[in-house]
């Protein structure tokens, strides 16, 4: 579902805007429905919790972005660890990591010389897009190591 786009500055990974708008609109519609059928009981609290989850998902889909430029990589997502970045001069290696969990979550992980990790959620990228991102990051790490 994620899209990989090539720009003049590098690569951008993001969810399509329609997905975030759809989830957000569904959350608003659910909130209106809950408000109109207001009765304070267990179901009401469940509907409120569901509404919040859908609204937060919409905001996450709208705000998630990973940008890979020749100088650095950075990610941003509201409600999810905020902003992270890595300078390719401090990067040592990049791997595709499969983690245990529902649907086998996959992450592109960059290890740095400072011992930190820069991660991009690649579960929703196609196999060819994952390979493209890995090749791009490897090329940037090699270029930065030579300079």
Notable traits:
single chain; 147 residues; alpha+beta; 5-stranded antiparallel sheet; 3-stranded antiparallel sheet; elongated
The major sheet is characterized as: 5 strands, antiparallel
Unreliable stretches: none
Secondary-structure content class: alpha+beta
- The largest sheet has its strands arranged as 1-2-3-4-5
Total strand segments:
8
Q: Which percent bin holds the helix content?
A: 40-55%
Distance between the termini: 36 Å
Rg, rounded, reads: 19 Å
Number of helices: 3
Strand content: 25-35%
Shape designation: elongated
Taken in chain order, the helices and strands follow as EEHHEEEEEEH
The residue-averaged pLDDT reads: 89
What does this structure look like?
- With 147 residues, this protein is of the alpha+beta class.
- The protein is built from three helices and eight strands; from the N terminus they run ββααββββββα.
- A five-stranded antiparallel sheet has the order 1-2-3-4-5.
- β7 and β8 (117-121) form a beta hairpin.
- α1 packs antiparallel against α2.
- The longest helix has 22 residues, at 42-63.
- The radius of gyration is 19 Å and the shape is elongated.
- It starts with a strand and ends with a helix.
In short:
With about 150 residues, this protein is of the alpha+beta class.
Which SSEs are present, and which pair or pack?
Blueprint lengths: L2 E4 L4 E4 L2 H20 L5 H22 L1 E4 L3 E6 L4 E6 L3 E8 L7 E7 L4 E5 L5 H20 L1
Antiparallel strand pairs: 1-2, 2-3, 3-4, 4-5, 6-7, 7-8
